[in-house]
Amino acid sequence: MARTAQMRLMELMVLKQDIAPVIEYIGKKESFQLQNRQNEDTSKSKDFDVDSNFYTSLRNASVNLDIPLSDEEFSSMEIAAPNAKDREDAARILKAYNDLESELEAAAAEVTKTSDAYKEALAFANLKVSFSEIDNLSFLALRVGKIDPAGFDEVKQQLGVKAVVVALGDDKSHILVAASKKNSAEVDLVLQKLGFVALDIPENFEGVPEDVLNGLASQKNKAVDKYDELAQTRANFAETHKLAIHHLIKLFAIGVQISDVERNLESTELVYRIVGWVPLTECDTYMKELDSITQGRIAIRIYSPLEIPDVVAGKEQVPVKLTHGRFVKSFERMIFSYGSPLYGTIDPTPFVAVFFTLLFGIMFGDLGQGLVFLLMGILMAAKVIKVGGWNKFAPIFIAIGVSSSLMGFLTGEFFSNETLLEPAAEWVTGLFGTPHAPILKMMPSSDPSSIVAMFGVFGVAVGIGFIINTIGLIVNIINNIIRRRYDEAFFGKNGLAGAVFFWYVVALIIRMVVFHHSIAVYDWIVIGVSLFFAAFAEPFENLVAGRKPLLENGVGTYLISGVVELIEVISGYLSNTVSFVRVGAFALSHAVLDFLILTLTNMVGGEGSVAGIAILIIGNAIIIVLEGMIVAIQVIRLQYYEFFSKFFNETGSEFKPFRFENR
């Protein structure tokens, strides 16, 4: 039987100059579980902020430039840390991006300023009051006057966003200044310093002068044109630098994670200490490759679990790693969702893979519906269908598709049709005797053979239950022997005593039913002795384990608890076995549902009518989705309660190696 992978504790002493490439290597290998990560040392933070700042700035830039990474792009992470050239490239791109954003921001402010000024002036273009009164009626303060043409640019620079300055003529000797009322005093002060001479507007002049409006409109249009030009430049920048930005984001995502690990390691000024669990099979590779990466500037020590005081004392658990092929590996999450096996014990995953596939197929027997699961699994494995983390379960869909299809062929069901497979069934049965269809009849009828076949399915289900319970008991006995817990291995409900009772009773029933044997005295002796050591095991367990006193709570309590345990042993094994009758019941219910769909189809005109086809499609879809989920839940329940409960009395710690994540 397969056991959990052997682990070793590896201690690395790494010089500061080599720490980044060593962590990068560990992350790429994905087989090193860090042990000594501590709380973040804030005194080190400044040394590690560079890559984090680059990463954050690049992500913000990608969003603002409307070129964010998709989930698919981020899933194809480039496992490499940024180097000096990558940091130079990032700094150069970010500088160009920031400069462009600053120009665009200034251009947007200029557009807003000139547009507001033009709208404000335009509102008073047809105002039938004197120009001299506009200041009292508007939020806009207008100043018209003369200035030295050489000082025009100086006026614009000093007023900045506080006012719009418009040249009234080609020589820029006359200007119009438009500002909000709240800024008018500050604007007048600046104009006075720069030699501005206000012009007298005729007292009876009404509205806003046409050349003033034209000047404001021209200024607004120039601002809009400049903004549009910069926006196009920004779009071109995004398209030109898209790949480079995405590449750098992926690199700095790795850099950030390396920095996170580095800042949390034990260290001195020059040396870092990394401690973690590694599979034994990987140790030689780590030693050779780390020595090559650091050019020999590394010290490596490897410890077996029994050399670690905390492990021996039971204060620390050795992480558990399961090693499987692709098919069995897809069932690992089912194990870890219940609990992790203890280190060094038997790996139950292969048994779970076989039992789940077999039980699901028996309960969900339909060739057509099984082929749907099979096709779905194939498409998920080929990533034609992408359902996130569910794609890793593609082998499970393929397996249950095959088992359901085989069971469906035996029962003659194909998308609820009971006649399509008859020729194939008659050909197969004809090879072994009289041809008949289906090979295995599930639906009850007046034919006595159908009743026999139906109860045969129930018998097979109970037989499978016996095998599953037996394997669970054997796993428990072997695990306890491996761990040198002989008291639990030989006594108690799930120990050898309970197993002997269970097996002997089943063998006795078979002898009585098949061979018509009667119960003998030795049968009662074997059953009684095994049942006694299973139910009244406390003093014997304490004796073997060396615990005292043998009866912790006295004889009276021992007898009462023994009687209760006696009832528990008998009822427990009975329920554990009978529980598998549900497998046959679900197989029968699936056949009944197929029969109901076929009956409804015939009631509306048969498979050749539109209504009949609709009922077939909808009915089969409901069975595939809803009953598929129900059957899966029932199979998992049987695994948890009838199999895992035999040996999962204590759980271990799952192996969780350090790996770079998509961030």
What does this 3D model show about the protein?
With 663 residues, this protein is α+β, with helices and mostly antiparallel strands. The protein contains 24 helices and 11 strands. The strands form 3 sheets. Strands 1, 2, 7, 8 and 9 form a 5-stranded antiparallel beta sheet that branches. It has a 4-stranded antiparallel beta sheet with strand order 4-5-3-6, sandwiched between helices. Strands 10-11 form a two-stranded parallel sheet. Helix 1 (19-29) crosses helix 8 (210-263), helix 14 (367-381) runs antiparallel to helix 15 and helix 19 (496-514) packs antiparallel against helix 20. The mean pLDDT is 86.
Short structural description:
The protein is an alpha+beta fold.
Global mean pLDDT: 86
Helix content: 55-70%
Radius of gyration: 41 Å
Oligomer: single chain
Low-confidence stretches: none
Proportion of β residues? Answer: 5-15%
The dominant shape is: elongated
Work out the helix count. 24
Structural class: alpha+beta
Q: Strand count, sense and closure of the main sheet?
A: 5 strands, antiparallel
Strand runs, count: 11
Distance between the termini: 39 Å
